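Q: Here's a chain of 548 amino acids. Please give me its 3D structure as C-alpha coordinates.
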Amino acid sequence: MTRHGGDALIASLREQGVARVFSIPGESFLAALDGLYESGIDNVVARQEGGAAMMAEAYGKLTGRPGVAFVTRGPGATNASSGVHVAFQDSTPMILFVGQVASDQRDREAFQEVDYRAMFGPLAKWVAEIDRTDRIPEYVARAFQVAQSGRPGPVVLALPEDMLSSACDAPPVPAAVLPSGLAAASDVAEVIAQLEAAERPLVMLGGGNWSAAAAKAIATVAEVLDLPVGASFRCQDFLDNRHPHYIGDIGIGVNPKLAQRVRAADVILCLGARLGEMTTSGYTLLTPPVPAQRLLHVHADPNELGRVYHPTLAVAADAGKFAQSMAEALAGRAARPAGPWVKEARAEYDAWQQPRETPGELKMEQVIAHLNAALPDDAIVTNGAGNYSAWLHRYYRYRNFRTQLAPTSGSMGYGLPAAVAAKIERPEQEVICLAGDGCFQMTMQEFGVACEHGANLIVLISNNGMYGTIRLHQQKKYPRRPSGTDLFNPDFAALARSYGAFGAVAATNAEFEAAFAQARAAGKPAIIELQISPQALGPMVELETIPG
Protein backbone atom coordinates (compact mmCIF):
# COMPACT_ATOMS: atom_id res chain seq x y z
CA MET A 1 0.00 0.00 0.00
CA THR A 2 1.42 3.37 -1.01
CA ARG A 3 1.28 6.06 1.69
CA HIS A 4 3.37 9.02 2.74
CA GLY A 5 6.43 8.61 4.91
CA GLY A 6 4.65 9.89 8.01
CA ASP A 7 2.15 7.03 7.75
CA ALA A 8 4.99 4.56 7.27
CA LEU A 9 6.72 5.92 10.36
CA ILE A 10 3.64 5.59 12.57
CA ALA A 11 2.90 2.11 11.18
CA SER A 12 6.43 1.15 12.21
CA LEU A 13 5.80 2.46 15.73
CA ARG A 14 2.64 0.36 15.97
CA GLU A 15 4.64 -2.68 14.89
CA GLN A 16 7.05 -2.00 17.77
CA GLY A 17 4.12 -1.93 20.21
CA VAL A 18 4.03 1.83 20.81
CA ALA A 19 0.75 2.93 22.38
CA ARG A 20 1.64 6.48 23.45
CA VAL A 21 3.99 9.25 22.34
CA PHE A 22 4.83 12.65 23.82
CA SER A 23 5.30 15.65 21.59
CA ILE A 24 5.39 19.32 20.80
CA PRO A 25 3.97 19.79 17.28
CA GLY A 26 6.15 21.35 14.59
CA GLU A 27 5.84 22.11 10.90
CA SER A 28 8.90 19.99 10.18
CA PHE A 29 7.04 16.73 10.85
CA LEU A 30 3.48 17.48 9.77
CA ALA A 31 3.27 14.18 7.89
CA ALA A 32 4.07 12.25 11.07
CA LEU A 33 1.36 14.17 12.93
CA ASP A 34 -1.02 13.28 10.13
CA GLY A 35 -0.01 9.65 10.51
CA LEU A 36 -0.88 9.81 14.20
CA TYR A 37 -4.38 11.18 13.50
CA GLU A 38 -6.20 7.87 13.13
CA SER A 39 -3.44 5.57 14.35
CA GLY A 40 -4.85 4.70 17.76
CA ILE A 41 -1.58 5.90 19.31
CA ASP A 42 -2.18 8.39 22.13
CA ASN A 43 -0.34 11.67 21.54
CA VAL A 44 0.30 13.58 24.80
CA VAL A 45 1.15 17.15 23.84
CA ALA A 46 3.49 18.81 26.31
CA ARG A 47 4.10 22.53 26.74
CA GLN A 48 7.85 22.57 26.10
CA GLU A 49 10.13 20.05 24.39
CA GLY A 50 12.16 19.41 27.54
CA GLY A 51 8.95 18.37 29.28
CA ALA A 52 7.99 16.06 26.39
CA ALA A 53 11.41 14.38 26.44
CA MET A 54 11.33 13.96 30.23
CA MET A 55 7.83 12.47 30.00
CA ALA A 56 9.10 9.98 27.43
CA GLU A 57 12.08 9.14 29.64
CA ALA A 58 9.86 8.61 32.68
CA TYR A 59 7.56 6.38 30.60
CA GLY A 60 10.58 4.29 29.60
CA LYS A 61 11.79 4.08 33.18
CA LEU A 62 8.34 3.12 34.46
CA THR A 63 7.46 0.52 31.82
CA GLY A 64 10.82 -0.79 30.62
CA ARG A 65 9.69 -0.05 27.03
CA PRO A 66 11.13 2.83 25.01
CA GLY A 67 9.46 6.15 25.63
CA VAL A 68 8.87 8.01 22.35
CA ALA A 69 8.93 11.76 21.81
CA PHE A 70 8.51 13.97 18.74
CA VAL A 71 9.95 17.49 18.62
CA THR A 72 10.64 19.99 15.89
CA ARG A 73 14.00 21.07 14.54
CA GLY A 74 16.47 23.58 15.98
CA PRO A 75 15.15 25.11 19.22
CA GLY A 76 12.80 22.16 19.69
CA ALA A 77 15.71 19.75 19.58
CA THR A 78 17.91 21.82 21.87
CA ASN A 79 15.08 22.04 24.41
CA ALA A 80 14.60 18.26 24.25
CA SER A 81 18.28 17.54 24.84
CA SER A 82 17.78 17.77 28.62
CA GLY A 83 15.52 14.72 28.56
CA VAL A 84 17.91 12.83 26.28
CA HIS A 85 20.72 13.41 28.76
CA VAL A 86 18.56 12.04 31.59
CA ALA A 87 17.84 8.92 29.54
CA PHE A 88 21.53 8.45 28.74
CA GLN A 89 22.83 8.74 32.29
CA ASP A 90 19.87 6.81 33.73
CA SER A 91 20.14 3.96 31.18
CA THR A 92 16.53 4.39 30.05
CA PRO A 93 15.25 3.21 26.66
CA MET A 94 13.94 6.17 24.66
CA ILE A 95 13.47 7.27 21.04
CA LEU A 96 13.50 10.95 20.11
CA PHE A 97 12.25 11.87 16.64
CA VAL A 98 13.38 15.33 15.51
CA GLY A 99 12.06 17.21 12.51
CA GLN A 100 14.72 18.31 10.05
CA VAL A 101 14.98 20.72 7.12
CA ALA A 102 14.22 19.30 3.68
CA SER A 103 17.08 17.34 2.17
CA ASP A 104 17.60 19.84 -0.69
CA GLN A 105 18.32 22.55 1.90
CA ARG A 106 20.93 20.66 3.95
CA ASP A 107 24.27 22.30 4.76
CA ARG A 108 23.05 25.80 3.89
CA GLU A 109 22.29 26.79 7.48
CA ALA A 110 18.64 26.74 6.53
CA PHE A 111 16.00 27.90 9.00
CA GLN A 112 16.59 26.02 12.30
CA GLU A 113 19.02 23.58 10.68
CA VAL A 114 21.21 21.61 13.07
CA ASP A 115 23.63 18.72 12.55
CA TYR A 116 21.98 16.29 14.96
CA ARG A 117 24.73 13.69 14.71
CA ALA A 118 27.17 16.25 16.08
CA MET A 119 24.72 17.69 18.60
CA PHE A 120 23.41 14.47 20.14
CA GLY A 121 26.46 12.27 19.55
CA PRO A 122 27.72 12.43 23.17
CA LEU A 123 24.18 12.17 24.61
CA ALA A 124 22.71 9.17 22.81
CA LYS A 125 23.52 5.56 21.95
CA TRP A 126 22.88 6.17 18.27
CA VAL A 127 22.01 9.26 16.18
CA ALA A 128 20.94 9.01 12.55
CA GLU A 129 19.08 10.91 9.86
CA ILE A 130 16.62 9.02 7.65
CA ASP A 131 17.26 10.26 4.11
CA ARG A 132 15.21 7.69 2.17
CA THR A 133 11.49 7.21 2.67
CA ASP A 134 11.64 3.50 1.83
CA ARG A 135 14.13 2.95 4.68
CA ILE A 136 11.89 4.38 7.42
CA PRO A 137 10.85 0.91 8.73
CA GLU A 138 14.48 -0.21 8.78
CA TYR A 139 15.68 2.79 10.77
CA VAL A 140 12.80 2.62 13.25
CA ALA A 141 13.39 -1.09 13.87
CA ARG A 142 17.08 -0.49 14.46
CA ALA A 143 16.32 2.40 16.81
CA PHE A 144 14.18 0.16 19.01
CA GLN A 145 16.84 -2.57 18.88
CA VAL A 146 19.62 -0.21 19.96
CA ALA A 147 17.58 1.57 22.64
CA GLN A 148 16.76 -1.70 24.41
CA SER A 149 19.86 -3.85 23.86
CA GLY A 150 22.70 -4.08 26.35
CA ARG A 151 22.74 -0.97 28.47
CA PRO A 152 19.44 0.74 27.52
CA GLY A 153 19.52 4.34 26.42
CA PRO A 154 18.24 7.02 24.05
CA VAL A 155 18.30 7.00 20.25
CA VAL A 156 17.76 10.12 18.14
CA LEU A 157 16.37 9.95 14.59
CA ALA A 158 16.21 13.09 12.45
CA LEU A 159 13.34 13.30 9.94
CA PRO A 160 13.86 15.53 6.87
CA GLU A 161 10.56 17.15 5.98
CA ASP A 162 10.51 15.96 2.35
CA MET A 163 11.39 12.40 3.33
CA LEU A 164 8.27 12.25 5.52
CA SER A 165 5.98 13.68 2.85
CA SER A 166 7.20 11.46 0.00
CA ALA A 167 5.39 8.27 -1.00
CA CYS A 168 6.36 4.96 0.58
CA ASP A 169 5.27 1.34 0.14
CA ALA A 170 7.84 -0.35 2.40
CA PRO A 171 6.19 -2.63 5.01
CA PRO A 172 7.02 -2.30 8.74
CA VAL A 173 9.85 -4.41 10.13
CA PRO A 174 8.78 -6.84 12.91
CA ALA A 175 9.24 -5.83 16.54
CA ALA A 176 12.77 -5.87 17.90
CA VAL A 177 14.12 -9.21 19.12
CA LEU A 178 16.43 -8.46 22.02
CA PRO A 179 19.50 -10.40 23.14
CA SER A 180 18.88 -12.65 26.13
CA GLY A 181 21.31 -10.83 28.40
CA LEU A 182 21.91 -14.07 30.27
CA ALA A 183 25.23 -14.92 31.90
CA ALA A 184 26.95 -18.26 31.76
CA ALA A 185 26.02 -20.66 34.56
CA SER A 186 29.70 -20.72 35.55
CA ASP A 187 29.64 -16.95 36.17
CA VAL A 188 26.54 -17.27 38.35
CA ALA A 189 28.16 -20.09 40.31
CA GLU A 190 31.39 -18.14 40.76
CA VAL A 191 29.57 -15.08 42.11
CA ILE A 192 27.64 -17.21 44.59
CA ALA A 193 30.86 -18.96 45.69
CA GLN A 194 32.66 -15.63 46.20
CA LEU A 195 29.80 -14.25 48.27
CA GLU A 196 29.57 -17.38 50.39
CA ALA A 197 33.31 -17.27 51.10
CA ALA A 198 33.23 -13.60 52.08
CA GLU A 199 33.27 -12.43 55.69
CA ARG A 200 31.85 -8.99 54.93
CA PRO A 201 29.92 -9.17 51.63
CA LEU A 202 27.78 -6.34 50.32
CA VAL A 203 25.45 -6.04 47.31
CA MET A 204 24.85 -2.79 45.44
CA LEU A 205 21.90 -2.48 43.03
CA GLY A 206 21.41 -0.01 40.22
CA GLY A 207 21.27 0.73 36.51
CA GLY A 208 18.75 -0.32 33.89
CA ASN A 209 17.18 -3.63 32.90
CA TRP A 210 15.45 -4.29 36.21
CA SER A 211 11.96 -5.67 36.74
CA ALA A 212 9.58 -6.64 39.52
CA ALA A 213 10.68 -10.25 39.05
CA ALA A 214 14.33 -9.24 39.44
CA ALA A 215 13.52 -7.26 42.60
CA LYS A 216 11.82 -10.35 44.04
CA ALA A 217 14.77 -12.51 43.05
CA ILE A 218 17.38 -10.31 44.75
CA ALA A 219 15.34 -10.43 47.95
CA THR A 220 15.51 -14.25 47.82
CA VAL A 221 19.25 -14.19 47.13
CA ALA A 222 19.83 -11.86 50.09
CA GLU A 223 17.84 -14.14 52.41
CA VAL A 224 19.56 -17.38 51.32
CA LEU A 225 23.12 -16.00 51.33
CA ASP A 226 22.59 -13.56 54.24
CA LEU A 227 23.65 -10.47 52.29
CA PRO A 228 23.20 -6.79 53.10
CA VAL A 229 21.79 -4.96 50.07
CA GLY A 230 22.21 -1.28 49.31
CA ALA A 231 20.81 0.75 46.41
CA SER A 232 22.80 3.10 44.24
CA PHE A 233 21.72 6.72 43.75
CA ARG A 234 17.96 6.99 43.12
CA CYS A 235 17.47 3.24 42.71
CA GLN A 236 15.92 2.78 46.16
CA ASP A 237 12.84 0.98 44.86
CA PHE A 238 14.82 -2.06 43.62
CA LEU A 239 14.27 -3.78 46.99
CA ASP A 240 11.45 -3.21 49.48
CA ASN A 241 12.99 -0.83 52.02
CA ARG A 242 11.23 -2.73 54.82
CA HIS A 243 13.14 -5.90 53.97
CA PRO A 244 15.47 -6.84 56.84
CA HIS A 245 18.42 -7.13 54.42
CA TYR A 246 17.98 -3.66 52.92
CA ILE A 247 20.57 -1.28 54.41
CA GLY A 248 19.99 2.04 52.62
CA ASP A 249 20.98 4.09 49.61
CA ILE A 250 24.57 4.59 48.57
CA GLY A 251 24.45 8.00 46.95
CA ILE A 252 24.48 11.69 47.82
CA GLY A 253 24.27 12.23 51.57
CA VAL A 254 25.01 8.58 52.30
CA ASN A 255 24.71 7.40 55.90
CA PRO A 256 28.31 7.71 57.20
CA LYS A 257 28.03 4.29 58.85
CA LEU A 258 26.87 2.74 55.58
CA ALA A 259 29.77 4.43 53.77
CA GLN A 260 32.12 2.85 56.29
CA ARG A 261 30.56 -0.56 55.68
CA VAL A 262 31.14 -0.22 51.95
CA ARG A 263 34.78 0.60 52.63
CA ALA A 264 35.07 -2.29 55.09
CA ALA A 265 33.45 -4.90 52.83
CA ASP A 266 35.73 -7.63 51.54
CA VAL A 267 33.51 -8.57 48.56
CA ILE A 268 31.13 -6.22 46.72
CA LEU A 269 28.66 -7.50 44.16
CA CYS A 270 27.67 -4.55 41.99
CA LEU A 271 24.57 -5.47 40.01
CA GLY A 272 23.93 -3.01 37.19
CA ALA A 273 25.31 0.22 38.68
CA ARG A 274 28.01 2.12 36.78
CA LEU A 275 30.07 2.93 39.89
CA GLY A 276 30.21 6.61 39.00
CA GLU A 277 30.80 9.69 41.12
CA MET A 278 27.39 9.70 42.85
CA THR A 279 27.40 6.02 43.82
CA THR A 280 30.96 6.06 45.12
CA SER A 281 30.84 9.39 46.99
CA GLY A 282 33.27 11.00 44.59
CA TYR A 283 35.25 7.78 44.03
CA THR A 284 36.09 7.46 47.73
CA LEU A 285 34.05 4.41 48.82
CA LEU A 286 36.07 2.32 46.41
CA THR A 287 39.55 3.53 45.51
CA PRO A 288 40.29 3.65 41.78
CA PRO A 289 41.69 2.02 39.78
CA VAL A 290 42.11 -1.08 41.98
CA PRO A 291 39.69 -1.13 44.92
CA ALA A 292 40.61 -2.72 48.23
CA GLN A 293 37.43 -4.81 48.05
CA ARG A 294 37.06 -7.74 45.69
CA LEU A 295 34.69 -6.35 43.09
CA LEU A 296 32.23 -8.58 41.26
CA HIS A 297 30.74 -6.32 38.61
CA VAL A 298 27.73 -7.32 36.52
CA HIS A 299 26.74 -4.85 33.81
CA ALA A 300 25.00 -5.14 30.45
CA ASP A 301 27.62 -3.04 28.68
CA PRO A 302 31.05 -4.70 28.50
CA ASN A 303 32.60 -1.26 27.97
CA GLU A 304 31.49 -0.29 31.48
CA LEU A 305 33.35 -3.17 33.10
CA GLY A 306 36.80 -2.03 34.18
CA ARG A 307 36.10 1.51 33.00
CA VAL A 308 36.94 3.06 36.39
CA TYR A 309 37.52 0.13 38.73
CA HIS A 310 39.46 -3.05 38.04
CA PRO A 311 37.06 -5.92 38.84
CA THR A 312 37.93 -9.28 40.37
CA LEU A 313 35.19 -10.76 38.19
CA ALA A 314 33.51 -8.97 35.28
CA VAL A 315 30.27 -10.30 33.82
CA ALA A 316 28.65 -8.72 30.76
CA ALA A 317 25.00 -9.54 31.43
CA ASP A 318 21.62 -8.05 32.20
CA ALA A 319 21.80 -7.34 35.95
CA GLY A 320 18.13 -8.06 36.61
CA LYS A 321 18.29 -11.38 34.79
CA PHE A 322 21.53 -12.19 36.61
CA ALA A 323 19.70 -11.75 39.92
CA GLN A 324 17.00 -14.11 38.69
CA SER A 325 19.64 -16.65 37.62
CA MET A 326 21.18 -16.47 41.08
CA ALA A 327 17.79 -17.11 42.68
CA GLU A 328 17.24 -20.09 40.38
CA ALA A 329 20.66 -21.50 41.23
CA LEU A 330 19.81 -21.20 44.94
CA ALA A 331 16.35 -22.76 44.58
CA GLY A 332 15.62 -25.28 47.32
CA ARG A 333 18.03 -23.71 49.79
CA ALA A 334 16.43 -22.28 52.91
CA ALA A 335 16.88 -18.70 54.01
CA ARG A 336 19.58 -18.23 56.62
CA PRO A 337 19.01 -16.29 59.84
CA ALA A 338 20.50 -12.84 59.57
CA GLY A 339 24.00 -12.72 61.03
CA PRO A 340 25.74 -9.87 62.84
CA TRP A 341 27.04 -8.20 59.65
CA VAL A 342 23.51 -7.83 58.24
CA LYS A 343 21.80 -7.10 61.57
CA GLU A 344 24.21 -4.33 62.44
CA ALA A 345 23.91 -2.75 58.98
CA ARG A 346 20.12 -2.85 59.17
CA ALA A 347 20.15 -1.35 62.67
CA GLU A 348 22.30 1.50 61.39
CA TYR A 349 19.79 2.09 58.58
CA ASP A 350 16.87 2.12 61.03
CA ALA A 351 18.71 4.61 63.22
CA TRP A 352 19.45 6.79 60.18
CA GLN A 353 15.72 6.78 59.42
CA GLN A 354 14.85 8.46 62.70
CA PRO A 355 13.95 12.06 61.92
CA ARG A 356 16.31 14.81 62.94
CA GLU A 357 14.40 17.99 63.74
CA THR A 358 15.00 20.92 61.42
CA PRO A 359 14.03 24.62 61.83
CA GLY A 360 10.62 26.04 61.04
CA GLU A 361 6.95 25.38 61.78
CA LEU A 362 6.62 23.06 58.77
CA LYS A 363 9.30 20.40 58.78
CA MET A 364 10.17 18.33 55.73
CA GLU A 365 11.07 15.32 57.88
CA GLN A 366 7.50 15.29 59.17
CA VAL A 367 6.11 15.72 55.65
CA ILE A 368 7.96 12.58 54.55
CA ALA A 369 6.92 10.71 57.70
CA HIS A 370 3.29 11.50 56.87
CA LEU A 371 3.75 10.25 53.29
CA ASN A 372 5.19 7.01 54.66
CA ALA A 373 2.15 6.54 56.86
CA ALA A 374 -0.54 7.72 54.43
CA LEU A 375 0.45 6.43 51.00
CA PRO A 376 -0.24 2.89 49.74
CA ASP A 377 2.65 0.61 48.83
CA ASP A 378 2.21 1.17 45.10
CA ALA A 379 2.22 4.98 45.24
CA ILE A 380 4.67 6.47 42.73
CA VAL A 381 6.87 9.29 44.03
CA THR A 382 8.77 11.53 41.62
CA ASN A 383 11.31 14.28 42.12
CA GLY A 384 13.87 16.35 40.30
CA ALA A 385 17.02 17.84 41.81
CA GLY A 386 17.58 20.03 44.83
CA ASN A 387 18.23 19.84 48.55
CA TYR A 388 14.54 19.14 49.22
CA SER A 389 15.08 15.66 47.75
CA ALA A 390 17.54 14.78 50.52
CA TRP A 391 14.65 14.42 52.98
CA LEU A 392 12.83 12.15 50.56
CA HIS A 393 15.85 9.93 49.92
CA ARG A 394 16.69 9.65 53.59
CA TYR A 395 13.29 9.15 55.18
CA TYR A 396 10.87 7.75 52.60
CA ARG A 397 10.53 3.97 52.37
CA TYR A 398 9.92 2.64 48.87
CA ARG A 399 7.96 -0.58 49.09
CA ASN A 400 7.30 -1.69 45.50
CA PHE A 401 9.48 -1.87 42.43
CA ARG A 402 9.32 1.14 40.13
CA THR A 403 7.66 3.51 42.54
CA GLN A 404 10.62 5.92 42.46
CA LEU A 405 11.01 8.11 39.39
CA ALA A 406 14.01 10.39 39.84
CA PRO A 407 16.93 11.39 37.61
CA THR A 408 20.31 9.91 38.48
CA SER A 409 21.62 12.60 36.11
CA GLY A 410 20.56 15.20 38.70
CA SER A 411 18.32 17.13 36.33
CA MET A 412 16.18 19.90 37.79
CA GLY A 413 12.60 20.07 36.57
CA TYR A 414 12.24 16.31 36.09
CA GLY A 415 9.71 15.54 38.81
CA LEU A 416 6.61 17.17 37.29
CA PRO A 417 6.88 15.78 33.72
CA ALA A 418 7.69 12.37 35.20
CA ALA A 419 4.62 12.55 37.41
CA VAL A 420 2.42 13.51 34.45
CA ALA A 421 3.68 10.56 32.40
CA ALA A 422 3.29 8.20 35.36
CA LYS A 423 -0.27 9.26 36.20
CA ILE A 424 -1.41 9.02 32.57
CA GLU A 425 0.15 5.55 32.27
CA ARG A 426 -0.94 4.32 35.72
CA PRO A 427 -4.14 6.24 36.54
CA GLU A 428 -5.11 3.75 39.26
CA GLN A 429 -1.97 4.48 41.30
CA GLU A 430 -1.39 7.57 43.42
CA VAL A 431 1.36 9.77 42.04
CA ILE A 432 3.11 12.35 44.22
CA CYS A 433 5.67 14.82 42.88
CA LEU A 434 8.10 16.50 45.24
CA ALA A 435 9.77 19.63 43.91
CA GLY A 436 11.62 22.65 45.17
CA ASP A 437 10.45 26.11 44.25
CA GLY A 438 13.31 26.40 41.76
CA CYS A 439 12.95 22.86 40.46
CA PHE A 440 9.20 23.21 39.90
CA GLN A 441 9.52 26.46 37.94
CA MET A 442 11.81 24.82 35.40
CA THR A 443 8.87 22.81 34.01
CA MET A 444 5.78 24.11 35.82
CA GLN A 445 3.96 24.66 32.53
CA GLU A 446 3.53 20.87 32.30
CA PHE A 447 1.00 21.08 35.13
CA GLY A 448 -1.38 22.15 32.39
CA VAL A 449 -0.91 18.76 30.70
CA ALA A 450 -1.97 17.03 33.92
CA CYS A 451 -5.10 19.17 34.08
CA GLU A 452 -5.91 18.60 30.40
CA HIS A 453 -5.70 14.81 30.80
CA GLY A 454 -7.34 14.57 34.21
CA ALA A 455 -4.09 13.17 35.60
CA ASN A 456 -4.84 13.73 39.28
CA LEU A 457 -1.32 13.90 40.63
CA ILE A 458 -0.32 15.88 43.71
CA VAL A 459 2.65 18.26 43.63
CA LEU A 460 4.32 19.20 46.92
CA ILE A 461 6.46 22.31 46.42
CA SER A 462 9.10 22.91 49.07
CA ASN A 463 9.28 26.70 48.98
CA ASN A 464 12.21 28.31 50.77
CA GLY A 465 12.63 31.20 48.35
CA MET A 466 16.01 30.20 47.00
CA TYR A 467 18.09 27.78 44.99
CA GLY A 468 18.97 25.98 48.22
CA THR A 469 21.66 23.62 46.97
CA ILE A 470 23.67 26.45 45.44
CA ARG A 471 23.14 28.66 48.49
CA LEU A 472 24.55 25.86 50.63
CA HIS A 473 27.72 25.66 48.52
CA GLN A 474 28.00 29.44 48.42
CA GLN A 475 27.88 29.62 52.19
CA LYS A 476 30.62 27.02 52.44
CA LYS A 477 32.96 28.62 49.92
CA TYR A 478 31.97 32.30 49.99
CA PRO A 479 30.26 32.80 53.37
CA ARG A 480 27.68 35.57 53.80
CA ARG A 481 27.96 36.54 50.10
CA PRO A 482 24.80 35.07 48.50
CA SER A 483 24.70 35.80 44.79
CA GLY A 484 22.08 34.81 42.25
CA THR A 485 20.29 32.33 44.49
CA ASP A 486 17.23 34.25 45.71
CA LEU A 487 13.92 33.39 44.02
CA PHE A 488 10.89 35.57 43.42
CA ASN A 489 8.06 33.07 43.40
CA PRO A 490 4.42 33.15 42.30
CA ASP A 491 1.47 32.08 44.42
CA PHE A 492 1.73 28.39 43.58
CA ALA A 493 -1.70 27.55 45.02
CA ALA A 494 -3.28 30.29 42.90
CA LEU A 495 -1.50 28.87 39.85
CA ALA A 496 -3.19 25.52 40.48
CA ARG A 497 -6.59 27.15 40.91
CA SER A 498 -6.14 29.09 37.66
CA TYR A 499 -6.12 25.70 35.90
CA GLY A 500 -9.25 24.62 37.77
CA ALA A 501 -7.13 22.38 39.98
CA PHE A 502 -6.78 22.13 43.76
CA GLY A 503 -4.36 24.56 45.39
CA ALA A 504 -3.39 25.04 49.00
CA VAL A 505 -0.66 26.54 51.16
CA ALA A 506 0.70 24.92 54.30
CA ALA A 507 2.86 26.68 56.88
CA THR A 508 2.64 24.09 59.68
CA ASN A 509 2.68 20.30 59.91
CA ALA A 510 -1.02 20.22 60.80
CA GLU A 511 -1.91 22.42 57.84
CA PHE A 512 0.02 20.13 55.53
CA GLU A 513 -1.72 16.98 56.74
CA ALA A 514 -5.13 18.63 56.32
CA ALA A 515 -4.28 19.96 52.85
CA PHE A 516 -2.88 16.61 51.75
CA ALA A 517 -6.08 14.84 52.76
CA GLN A 518 -8.11 17.44 50.84
CA ALA A 519 -5.88 17.07 47.77
CA ARG A 520 -6.28 13.29 47.76
CA ALA A 521 -10.05 13.66 47.94
CA ALA A 522 -10.31 16.51 45.41
CA GLY A 523 -10.57 14.37 42.27
CA LYS A 524 -8.37 16.79 40.33
CA PRO A 525 -4.66 17.63 40.02
CA ALA A 526 -3.32 19.44 43.04
CA ILE A 527 -0.50 21.69 44.22
CA ILE A 528 0.37 22.18 47.87
CA GLU A 529 2.90 24.90 48.59
CA LEU A 530 5.02 24.01 51.63
CA GLN A 531 6.40 27.12 53.26
CA ILE A 532 9.75 25.91 54.54
CA SER A 533 12.19 27.89 56.65
CA PRO A 534 15.16 29.19 54.60
CA GLN A 535 17.34 27.94 57.44
CA ALA A 536 16.40 24.31 56.69
CA LEU A 537 18.72 23.47 53.80
CA GLY A 538 18.75 19.72 54.36
CA PRO A 539 18.23 16.95 56.89
CA MET A 540 21.67 17.56 58.41
CA VAL A 541 22.42 21.19 57.60
CA GLU A 542 21.08 24.59 58.66
CA LEU A 543 22.06 27.76 56.87
CA GLU A 544 23.20 29.70 59.91
CA THR A 545 25.37 26.83 61.17
CA ILE A 546 27.24 26.19 57.92
CA PRO A 547 30.91 26.86 58.64
CA GLY A 548 32.33 29.59 56.50
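Q: Can you summarize the key feature?
A: The first strand starts at residue 3 and ends at 4.
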